[in-house]
């Protein structure tokens, strides 16, 4: 509908420069420039490399999104941007660019939470989110169970990882097995040829006295590494497919078991799964199986919308506009440790863990700020 909010979203929390354009719950453009190949040689994301890549990709990616959507920048009703959590320098590039666009175009600015955006993106796939929404978010940086009575203002953390996030564990196990970076897709691919029951790897934090909704994957990662090392030390071949399948099964078993428990305990009859690891085929199939057994409706966006993208930021921004939520001011900080309870950032300054657009508190972050003039902001 033409009267629904038209919002551009910018996502730069890690290594993807994502720019999405959304009208209401309809996705018009989802442009992504990834620097993953530049990080592959290091076996992980290098913050400085990511920041530089965002600087180079920002304006061309915005221009591509506007062209794909068939709209002019002047048509927009708002600019949304990931204000945190994420890599400080990377966030700073996106926040600075969003401020420049908002100022140059005279449009309201919405600094939003990365995790809440991962939940809201499902509206582009399956329509309006039920309230409350139960969300399992699993990625390279986060493994969280969240209850969201109102996606624009009320997101409550039920549990999270106490050490390695699920995606981080996938990357580390892939490195042990020599499968390269990023590890998630490689482990998923090899696991399809293996036996998930071949090796009894541990399930972290599933004891009677353990926290109900928290996750731990560090012990599992270590168990895999030791198992592989023992095989190699004894001169035996490592059955890569079986190791991948058994490790993957241990991860998704815990994730889905705790998510179903959270739904039952909180009286929620549906589950939304998001984040990069939500693209994992075994997580999707086991979640579907267990949700059906428990009478719970499963909502999972298509894989491209599960990984970091600008569409999810635009989706939350559009919802902010539609519900009349307050816009952010131009002193909006980039907050690398922004708590999920802060769905949007009005522009106040945190005492700890923030990086302002001018790099206050981090003297070298000004190197990441790209000067954007009105002449080169949009084409």
What does this structure look like?
Strands 3-2-1-4-5-12 form a six-stranded mixed beta sheet, sandwiched between helices. A five-stranded mixed beta sheet has the order 8-7-6-9-10, with helices on both faces. Helix 4 (114-120) crosses helix 12, helix 7 packs across helix 9 and helix 9 (240-266) runs parallel beside helix 10. It has helices at residues 36-40, 47-69, 88-105, 114-120, 123-126, 166-176, 183-191, 218-233, 240-266, 281-294, 303-306, 310-322, 374-377; strands spanning 6-11, 16-23, 26-34, 78-84, 109-113, 133-138, 143-150, 154-160, 270-274, 297-299, 334-335, 344-345, 354-355. The model is unreliable at 349-379 (pLDDT under 50). It is of the alpha/beta class.
| Count of beta strands | 13
H/E order of the elements? Answer: EEEHHEHEHHEEEHHHHEHEHHEEEH
Proportion in β-strands: 15-25%
Helix amount, in percent?
Answer: 40-55%
Largest sheet: 6 strands, mixed
Q: Which term fits the overall shape?
A: globular
Quaternary: single chain
Q: With helices defined by DSSP (H or I, 4 residues minimum), what is the helix count?
A: 13
Largest sheet, spatial ordering of strands: 3-2-1-4-5-12
What separation lies between the terminal Cα atoms? 25 Å
Rg calc: 21 Å
Q: Please identify the structural class as seen in this structure.
A: alpha/beta
Question: Low-confidence parts, pLDDT < 50 over ≥5 residues?
Answer: 349-379
Overall pLDDT confidence = 90
